[in-house]
Design brief:
Layout (H helix, E strand, L loop, with lengths): L4 E3 L2 E4 L4 E6 L2 H4 L4 E6 L6 E6 L5 E3 L7 E6 L4 E6 L8 E7 L8 E6 L1
Parallel strand pairs: 2-10
Antiparallel strand pairs: 1-3, 3-8, 4-5, 4-9, 5-6, 7-8, 9-10
Length: 112
């Protein structure tokens, strides 16, 4: 399968916001669940948010109320809106479409 492409990461201050994007192949986009993971240095990867093909969303407890996953089927893109960012959100963020490969990741750094 084609690897999705993440973008939108960067350096932001504590309390700031970022919106990550993940562009994927149109052929697979509309029929699969979507997932955002993150991995911080020295830590295991963590499932941050997911959206089923029917639009049901789930979030890790650590991001509930701050992060929102959404999708735009017309653009074959899934988003992760991240508000009220904290230094502990610092990680490389990856997306996955269905059971396909992860993207290359986008770095999010939150300074205190």
């Amino acid at each position: 399968q084609v690897q999705p492409v993440e973008s939108g990461g960067g350096l932001v201050q504590d309390g700031g916001s970022l919106r990550l994007s993940c562009a994927a192949s149109g052929r697979i986009f509309s029929f699969n669940g979507m997932f955002w993971y993150r991995q911080a240095p020295g830590k295991k990867s963590e499932l941050v948010a997911s959206m089923s093909r029917d639009g049901v969303t789930t979030y890790a407890d650590s991001v509930k109320g701050r992060f929102t996953i959404s999708r735009d089927n017309t653009k074959n893109t899934v988003y992760l809106q991240m508000n009220s960012l904290k230094p502990e959100d610092t990680a490389v963020y990856y997306c996955q479409i269905g059971v396909g490969p992860w993207g290359q990741g986008t770095q999010v750094t939150v300074s205190s």
